[in-house]
Design brief:
- There is one protein chain.
- With 229 residues, the protein is α/β, with parallel strands linked by helices.
- The protein has one domain: Spore Coat Polysaccharide Biosynthesis Protein SpsA, Chain A (Alpha-Beta Complex).
- It has ten helices and eight strands.
- Helix 2 links the parallel strand 2 and strand 3.
- Helix 9 packs antiparallel against helix 10.
- The longest helix is centred in the middle third of the chain and has 16 residues.
- It is globular.
- It starts with a strand and ends in a 6-residue tail after the last helix.
């Protein structure tokens, strides 16, 4: 199986080299596609020698990931955030998990950081995902390109595009929920406050399900706020 790892970026100059260096051993049967949404720092310059394709698009994770998928040559697409690291045997884990009844999936997640609540948060993220069949971008969604195209790719909304995609996919096939763990940054949780961020994330998710404009939710998410002021 051939793979394409698609990484959406926006001003990730502090983290992108570490992210891409970790992927270099996989390049024998995996292309790395970085899709930049208009960075004003040195993200693109730093990434250029470490990727197979560098694409520039408009801002927005859904827009960026769809553009990466459109140019991908791999049979299997892996959507990776720039602050997230795959487990050592990620590709073989995917190959073993995927079959006719499970054509997409995600990994368990660990949140990097020192706060003891981060382990609790990650545990409930993984448990909730198994219970609901909904995956988040932090858990590194992987999917057959053919299936991804057939469901219309990521909806081009400002936030919750991963949840919207999962809702469509689980009607077709259940996700493969891998116990192997990706490690993603817990910086946001620590910067804004762990308990405040828990409440904020649940608030935004509830309001999304109730139909609130994703653009409004994106602005609140970026500012760590519950309401516009």
């Amino acid at each position: 199986m051939n793979y394409s790892i698609i990484i959406p970026t926006l001003n990730e100059g502090r983290t992108i080299v570490n992210c891409l260096n970790a992927l270099q051993p996989l390049r024998s049967n995996c292309e790395i596609i970085l899709v930049d949404g208009g960075s004003t720092d040195d993200t693109q310059k730093l990434a250029q020698p470490l990727v197979d394709k560098l694409i520039s698009t408009g801002k927005g994770r859904a827009i960026q990931m769809n553009a990466g998928a459109e140019s991908a040559k791999g049979e299997m697409l892996i959507f990776l955030h720039a602050d997230t690291f795959l487990p050592q045997n990620a590709l073989s884990d995917i190959a073993q998990a995927i079959h006719s009844q499970q054509q997409w999936g995600r990994f368990d997640v660990v949140l990097g950081g020192s706060h003891p609540m981060l382990k609790v948060i990650a545990f409930f993220m993984n448990w909730r995902s198994r219970l609901t069949g909904i995956a988040t971008g932090d858990q590194v969604i992987f999917i057959y390109k053919q299936l991804f195209d057939s469901v219309g790719r990521y909806p081009t909304i400002a936030l919750m595009e991963d949840i919207a995609l999962s809702k469509k996919l689980k009607k077709i096939a259940p996700p493969a929920c891998l116990k192997a763990k990706v490690t993603t940054s817990g910086r946001r949780w620590e910067d804004y406050g762990v308990f405040k961020t828990i409440l904020l994330m649940w608030s935004l998710r509830l309001r999304y399900f109730l139909g609130e404009d994703p653009q409004t939710l994106t602005e609140l998410y970026g500012r760590g706020k519950f309401w516009k002021t």
